[in-house]
Amino acid sequence: MSTIKANTLLHSDGTTTTQPSIPALDKRMAKAWLSMNGTGTVAINDSYNISSITDGGTGWYQANLTTAMSNTNFSVALSIGYDGSVHNDDHMLGVKERMSDRTTSVVKVLCNLNTNGGSYTDNADVLMYNLIVFGA
Question: How far apart are CA 84 and CA 9, in angstroms?
Answer without folding.
Answer: 55
